[in-house]
Amino acid sequence: MQRDKIFSIISIVCFCSILLIPLGIAFMWLTTNWKKTLKLILSGSLSTLYVVLVVLFFMLTPSVNSNGASLPFNYSKGKTEFNTEIPSNKKKTDSSIDEFKTESWKNKGNKQTDKDPERLPRSLQKKDGGKNLSIIIPIIFFLIILGLVILRNLKKSGKKNVYENPYVDTNQYKLPLAEDAKMPLVHFLKIRLYPDEKIFYATETVQKNNEGSFVVTSQRVVIINPELGQVDFPYEALEAVASVSNSVIQMTSGDRKYYIFVPENQMKYALAVLRWSYRKKGEK
User: Fold this and answer.
1) How many whole angstroms separate alpha carbon 235 and alpha carbon 22?
2) Which residue has the higher pLDDT, 56 or 209?
């Protein structure tokens, strides 16, 4: 419970920081026990807020052009020569040359004008293209991360029997149990053990309004719930043990039958360890 509170606080802090909204959504889906409806609402609203803020940030950021802008017109370098004395015999020739130069410069200017119409400076064009790209990349990255997180959570919610045993890691039981199998350490402190007694297995019982615990030790089976209190069954007193459904174990002792409701994914471990412990007790 304390762990869920810590991750809930971390998620809320990430939401308030705005910049860490994607991280907060990931924490929310992967670590908190909030309702699925609340998670979907928060994911949709915060995702929209994040995308809008990113777009506004890049749109309102002023563009800085440090390279200068290319001029949208052309100019030509000219050369001015002063010649106050012109020979009379070259007057006609020089005037024709001047006319030719004038026409050629005019034609050259017209061609350059036709080829190079007025356009936006290249630096500004590059700046606009970079801005568009910088807006798209974080949005795409955020949507990919959000999609992966939601997809992973949906896969987990779609799986059945997601119950996790709070007393023991059931992955350490290698079924079927060998004769010399080593039992994992079980953290269960609600019963007082007899001398040389060891706990081999424990799980919660899930009968509605009568939740409790089911424990298998090296000497007995223990049932704890509000209806029965604590009931101990030494192996000598057990006559039969069987599963009557995917989540109900029937224990027979004398003329009485007891029904233990366990999570479905714990049934195979409970029966396997109980039978293994019963055989070990009989061998002694």
Assistant:
1) 55
2) 209
Burial 60-86 (b: 16+ CB within 10 A, else e): eeeeeeeeeeeeeeeeeeeeeeeeeee
The sign of the dihedral angle between the CA atoms of 52, 53, 54, 55 is positive
Contacts of 29 by beta carbon, 8 Å cutoff, 6+ apart: 39, 43, 149, 150, 152, 153
Reduced to 3 states, what is the DSSP secondary structure of residue 75?
coil
Query: Who has greater pLDDT, 55 or 197?
Result: 197
Per-residue pLDDT of 53-112, as tens digits, reads 777 777 766 655 545 445 454 545 555 554 555 555 555 555 555 555 555 555 555 555
Is 277 in contact with 179 (CB distance < 8 Å)? Answer: no
In 73-156, the DSSP E strands lie at: none
CB neighbours of residue 132 within 10 Å: 11
- How many Å apart are CA 142 and CA 136, to the nearest integer? 10
Tell me how long the chain is: 284
* CB of 261 closer than 8 Å to CB of 244: no
Element (H, E) at 231: strand 229-234
DSSP 3-45: HHHHHHHHHHHHHHTSTTHHHHHHHHHHH----HHHHHHHHHH
Cα–Cα dist 195/104, whole Å: 116
Report the C-alpha gap between 213 and 210 in whole angstroms: 10
Pair of tokens at residue 220:
């007995």
What are the DSSP calls for 147-166, one per residue?
A: HHHHHHHHHHHHSS-----S
| Residue 7: predicted pLDDT | 72
Q: Which two tokens stand for residue 195?
A: 């001398």
Reading the block at residue 70, the tokens are 């290319």
By C-alpha distance, which of 45, 43, 10 is closest to 148?
43
